[in-house]
Amino acid sequence: MSPYASQIAPLAPRHDPRHVEAYMRCEHGTLDRLTPKMFAREVHMAVLCIQEGGTDAAERLAKSYGF
Fold first, then answer.
1. How far apart are CA 14 and CA 44, in angstroms?
2. pTM of this structure
């Protein structure tokens, strides 16, 4: 797991942190520069993407990032 998983898990407890991070990385090459507020917003947006696209698509995306 990436170092971001521990930050993502409490914000999206019902979702695989790998899936959330993969969608976040579609928009941001690095997550280090996100403020806590921006990070939380991006987690929320990623969850919406997962809900819309499904977990199979999220798993494929996560694997494409090597997660």
1. 12
2. 0.94
